Q: What sequence folds into this?
């Protein structure tokens, strides 16, 4: 377990940070929020690149920082690896040379993936003899990830590693980041303001605003809360764990979840593949009678669990229970009035098969 508690102010009347959270011993904890909310400051203090005015950082029973007792390990003794927006590779070394530099920095006796495993994991075998200037942005970031992993850190810190890449390069690197997460088996703090990266990689989420933690928990749990800033986004919606259940003769794939089955035009992989599906609230319609004669293929019986007005709009979030799973539907307040919607009422959730945005969480079990 990683414990982080930090307080710091930049100058008189400057930005103030006051946060406390925990991250699991394995997996990705995403620090998420708008620019200037303190994400990178947290990473810098954790890595030892910034000395906070007050705080404590402990990795298991190993204390990296404790301003009360005067403990402040220097960066090189914290056994952290940091991956920045820019890859920061050594230009005079080949890809292999950069990777071997990481291996030389590994603490004596530290265990972790070896050179061959990392090269295969990140698909950089064909790049080993090349210099960084001859690589694409996505390739440079994959090499930077490999170098960090070969240093065999006890904690991996990623400061918006995909922010400098275009959409195509981000899509290229994301699967490799997921592989690295599964291979590293260490805590990873991942700074981002891109929700698609959270969907694809994060196990837990720390939501930040103006230097404060406003919520923390699993990604699935926080995505279903209508009271958080996440709900104000146009791409807001629930992140739903699913399992690929094969395809039918209609060309649509089946995705099983706790509460039913969804049909999608996506190709989620072989049966048994585990995924997470973001079902955007704006893509769900609500009916009080079972619809017939529609092109919409997903018509799910549900119970209206609650209605949450959206401040400053003529819209609401309808919380829909589909078995043990919860969906959010963004509908108008007028619809609530016209349909006489009330909590506890049986309804149907309507979702087109073409609207899903899915993220792979793990391979087939």
A:
């Amino acid at each position: 377990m990683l414990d982080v508690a930090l307080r710091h102010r930049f100058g008189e009347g400057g930005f103030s940070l006051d946060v406390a959270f925990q991250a699991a011993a394995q997996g990705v904890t995403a620090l998420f929020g708008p620019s200037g909310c303190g994400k990178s400051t947290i990473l810098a203090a954790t890595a030892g690149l910034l000395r906070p005015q007050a705080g404590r950082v402990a990795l298991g029973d190993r204390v990296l920082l404790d301003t009360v007792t005067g403990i402040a390990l220097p960066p090189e003794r914290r056994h952290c690896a940091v991956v920045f927006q820019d890859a920061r590779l050594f230009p005079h070394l080949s890809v292999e040379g950069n990777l071997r530099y990481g291996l030389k920095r590994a603490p004596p006796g530290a265990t972790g993936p070896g050179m061959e495993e990392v090269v295969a994991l990140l698909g950089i075998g064909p790049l080993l003899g090349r210099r960084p200037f001859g690589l694409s942005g996505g390739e440079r970031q994959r090499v930077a990830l490999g170098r960090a992993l070969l240093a065999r850190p006890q904690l991996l810190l990623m400061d918006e590693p995909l922010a400098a890449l275009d959409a195509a390069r981000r899509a290229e690197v994301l699967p490799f980041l997921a592989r690295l997460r599964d291979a590293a088996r260490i805590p990873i703090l991942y700074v981002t303001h891109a929700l698609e990266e959270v969907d694809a990689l994060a196990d837990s989420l720390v939501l930040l605003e103006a230097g404060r933690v406003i919520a923390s928990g699993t990604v699935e749990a926080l995505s279903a809360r209508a009271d958080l800033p996440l709900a104000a986004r146009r791409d807001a919606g629930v992140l739903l764990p699913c399992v690929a259940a094969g395809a039918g003769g209609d060309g649509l794939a089946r995705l099983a979840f706790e509460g039913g089955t969804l049909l999608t035009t996506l190709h989620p992989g072989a049966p048994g593949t585990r995924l997470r599906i973001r079902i955007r609230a704006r893509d769900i319609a609500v009916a009080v009678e079972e619809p017939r004669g529609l092109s919409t293929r997903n018509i799910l019986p549900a119970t209206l669990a609650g209605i949450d007005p959206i401040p400053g709009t003529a819209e609401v979030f309808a919380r829909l229970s589909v078995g043990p799973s919860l969906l959010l539907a963004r509908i108008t307040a007028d619809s609530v009035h016209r349909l006489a919607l009330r909590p506890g009422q049986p309804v149907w959730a309507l979702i087109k098969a073409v609207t899903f945005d899915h993220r792979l969480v793990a391979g087939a079990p």
About this structure: The CA atoms of residues 106 and 152 lie 5 Å apart.
